[in-house]
Structure formats: C-alpha cells, structure tokens
C-alpha cells in the first residue's frame, strides 16, 4: 500500500482547495448534499426543457433511446457525480441509487457483463450522452430497483473550494501560514485541527457524535481506490484511535479524519511522494 506524507499532503490539499476561493461564486448549502434520483431527473428536465409528456414517461420507468432521454440521464449522472465525460462511469456511486434483491446472487455479474459489452469511452461530446445512458441501463435492468430516498452526493471541486475557504476564514488560517507548517507543527496546531474538523462537518463526512462516515468519505475521496480495501483500512485505524483521549473535539477530528486517511485521499493523489526505493 502506498503512503503519502501527511504534512505535505494535507498542506497541498488545503492549498489546492483554497486557491481562488475569494472569488468563488458557488454556493454549497451547508454543505451536505442529499438527493434522490427522481429529484435530479426533475432538475435536469427543467434545465434541458424536456417536454412534460416525455418527462412523465421517463419517471414512469420507460427508458426509450431518444436523444433527449440519453442526455437527460447523462445530466443526472453529472449531478449525482456518477458520470464524467472524461473518466466515464463511477460504478460504486451509481450503485448507491439502487436497492438490490438479497435473493439475487448474480446481479453484479450481470451488470458487469453488460458494462463490458459497451464501447470504450471517447472524448466525443456527441457520443457521451449515449454511453452514459447505456451505462445507466446496465444497472437499471440488471442491478436492482431505483431507490426512492435521498443519497449522499459528493461535492465537486468548486464546492470543496468554497467549504475550505470558508473554514479557513472561520479559523483565521491563511494559506501562507498553513504552508509554513511542518508535519510536527501541524500535529500540534489547534487551528489546523479545527480547520480539519470544520471541513469534515461542512462536507458531511464527519460529526462529533458519529465520527467518520466511512461510506460518505469513500464517495467523496475514494475514486480510484478499491472500496473494500479503503473501508477495511478505515475501520482498523478508526477502531484503534477512536477511544483515545485527544483533549478536544478538533484534535479528535484531526486524527480520525486525516491521520487515518493519509494514504487514500484521492484529492492529493497528484502529489504522491515517491517511496524510499524510488517507485
């Protein structure tokens, strides 16, 4: 398993999220986002001016392969973060919008077989709607039934910028101050601890009462990592550190939310430090 330097990694993460924050116009409500599939269908239908009759058909479960329907499903995928025109389908996020049948032992295999039969992703705007739609249908017809309740939606890059910038303002930390701290200094800095807690609270991946929401944290930061390994490591580390006496809610959040996830945070993968053997 590859590990990153916590001090450098956290500093770069926070710097990345803060750059340009003063000019940011995005509003991330609270900033936890919980949305149902149907809510996103309604929103996308309004944005795309889908006629009522076609919207009613889609909401009733009839998925005809016309261009409006294809692009509406792509819009839903973008809103729910399970589709990206550059990286394609994020399967584990789309799966969250379905309820599986415990008696169906082959739903995952059927879905995977369906996905493998689809063409490769191309950077072609004219084909993205079709591939997003076909990818969705693999789940729709094979994986389970669409959920009616709301699902956690990861924040996008700009929303994360907004959250981090606001938390830095609240706790009076500047980018220059943050980047001047060594790992040891960060471990001892109460403002950094409270900054981490603030980001966790605002994004919905942490609470003082419940601790780390591993499921949400994986949805927000786990892209590219094996879900099983991510969560196994998280449970082991959190179980080990949860009962320790940290002396403050901020310090507890800092250790549980960041020290336990220094090796898997996708946001800093571009800044991965080489191993000691040079790999």
TrEMBL record:
An MF annotation (GO) of this entry: odorant binding
Pfam families in UniProt: PBP_GOBP (PF01395)
Database matches in SUPFAM superfamilies: Insect pheromone/odorant-binding proteins (SSF47565)
GO CC term, one of those recorded: extracellular space
Annotated keywords: Disulfide bond, Secreted, Signal
GO process terms (BP): sensory perception of smell
CDD domains named among the record's database cross-references: PBP_GOBP
Subcellular location: Secreted
The family this protein is said to belong to: Belongs to the PBP/GOBP family.
The protein's name in its UniProt record: Odorant-binding protein
High-level lineage: Eukaryota, Metazoa, Ecdysozoa, Arthropoda, Hexapoda
């Amino acid at each position: 398993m590859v590990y990153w330097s916590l001090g450098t990694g956290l500093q770069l993460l926070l710097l990345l999220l803060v750059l340009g924050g003063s000019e940011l116009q995005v509003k991330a409500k609270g900033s936890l986002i919980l949305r149902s599939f149907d809510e996103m269908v309604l929103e996308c239908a309004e944005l795309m001016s889908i006629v009522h009759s076609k919207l009613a058909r889609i909401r009733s479960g009839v998925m005809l392969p016309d261009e409006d329907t294809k692009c509406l499903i792509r819009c839903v995928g973008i809103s729910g973060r399970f589709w990206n025109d550059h990286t394609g389908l994020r399967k584990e996020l789309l799966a969250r919008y379905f309820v599986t049948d415990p008696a169906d032992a082959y739903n995952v295999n059927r879905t995977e077989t369906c996905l493998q039969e689809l063409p490769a992703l191309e950077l072609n705007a004219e084909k993205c709607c079709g591939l997003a739609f076909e990818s969705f249908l693999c789940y729709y017809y094979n994986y389970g039934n669409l959920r009616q309740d709301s699902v956690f939606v990861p924040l996008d890059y700009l929303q994360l910028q907004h959250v981090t910038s606001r938390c830095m303002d609240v706790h009076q930390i500047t980018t220059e101050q943050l980047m001047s701290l060594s790992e040891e200094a960060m471990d001892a800095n109460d403002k950094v601890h409270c900054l981490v807690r603030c980001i966790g609270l605002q994004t919905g991946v942490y609470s003082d009462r419940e601790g780390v929401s591993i499921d949400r944290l994986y949805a927000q930061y786990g892209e590219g990592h094996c879900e099983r390994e991510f969560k196994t490591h998280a449970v082991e580390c959190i179980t080990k550190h949860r009962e320790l006496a940290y002396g403050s809610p901020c310090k507890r959040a800092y250790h549980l939310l960041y020290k336990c996830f220094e090796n898997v945070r996708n946001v800093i993968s571009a800044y991965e430090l080489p191993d000691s053997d040079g790999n």
